[in-house]
């Protein structure tokens, strides 16, 4: 027996009307090129035309977003934004022999002015522990101790637990400076660039050691060298 199949209806958009209500139940069938072209033109026109409410609100929303972003970056939270950028996109640095003293840290990419270069990482210890460790390091024959004071009570010790920042040498005419910032209620030391730093240029900052009777000679070689670190 042969059953007559009902004539397929076409919709306004050129696609065939499904009698069963589901395209999968009617099997594979070809679509005429004219019908396909009509459907593609209709769908393309619909995609290019944004909704009416979007056309009205796009301008104000974008300007408001730019205003909030500029006010946010211009506030005191700019250090936090820069720190997040430094965390996810670290500067390319390397340490190698320095003409100033022993090892030094060098830039492997151009660094703009007022950019976070690297965080000074180490163990947060108290002043009492720092005094004990400094004496122990001398007894162990460790010539240099990499301790950086955060505030009156906290010192960062990077002698045995730190990163490349401990290799930064002192200079009386440095291209960077150290700054203490607060991130999630925790104080951190970050090295900022004072000026544009070229590739293979050594990164330096002023240690700002307190004045003492026993002087530590400075070997930075800059024009305005003070002669001593302290």
UniProtKB/TrEMBL annotation:
Domain named SET: residues: 91-208
Keywords assigned by UniProt, alphabetized: Chromatin regulator, Methyltransferase, Nucleus, RNA-binding, S-adenosyl-L-methionine, Transcription, Transcription regulation, Transferase
Primary localisation category: nucleus
GO CC terms in record: Set1C/COMPASS complex
Pfam family, one: SET
The keyword Methyltransferase is assigned to this record: yes
PROSITE patterns attached to this UniProt entry: POST_SET (PS50868), SET (PS50280)
Domain Post-SET: 214-230
CDD domains assigned to the protein according to its UniProt record, in alphabetical order: SET_SETD1
Subcellular location(s) of the protein: Nucleus
Molecular functions per Gene Ontology: histone H3K4 methyltransferase activity; RNA binding
GO aspect biological process, one term: methylation
Source organism, top-level taxon: Eukaryota
PANTHER family: HISTONE-LYSINE N-METHYLTRANSFERASE SETD1, HISTONE-LYSINE N-METHYLTRANSFERASE SETD1B
Protein name, UniProt field: SET1B methyltransferase
Organism: Geococcyx californianus
Gene: Setd1b_0
């Amino acid at each position: 027996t042969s059953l007559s199949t009902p004539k397929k209806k076409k919709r306004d958009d050129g696609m065939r009307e499904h009698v069963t209500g589901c395209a999968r139940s009617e099997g594979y069938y070809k679509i005429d090129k004219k019908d396909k072209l009509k459907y593609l033109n209709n769908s393309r026109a619909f995609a290019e035309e944004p909704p009416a409410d979007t056309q009205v609100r796009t301008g104000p929303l974008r300007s408001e977003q730019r205003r909030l972003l500029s006010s946010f970056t211009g506030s005191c939270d700019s250090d936090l934004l820069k720190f997040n950028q430094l965390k996810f996109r670290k500067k390319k640095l390397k340490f190698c022999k320095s003409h100033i003293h022993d090892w030094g840290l060098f830039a492997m990419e151009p660094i703009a002015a007022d950019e976070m270069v690297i965080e000074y990482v180490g163990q947060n210890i108290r002043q009492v522990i720092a005094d004990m460790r400094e004496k122990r390091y001398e007894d162990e024959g460790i010539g240099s101790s990499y301790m950086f004071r955060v505030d009156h009570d906290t010192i960062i010790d990077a002698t045995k637990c730190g990163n490349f920042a401990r290799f930064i040498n002192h200079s009386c005419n440095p291209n960077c400076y150290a700054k203490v910032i607060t991130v999630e209620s925790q104080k951190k030391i970050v090295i900022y660039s004072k000026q544009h730093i070229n590739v293979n240029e050594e990164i330096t900052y002023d240690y700002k050691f307190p004045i003492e009777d026993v002087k530590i000679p400075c070997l930075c070689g800059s024009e305005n060298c003070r002669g001593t670190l302290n």
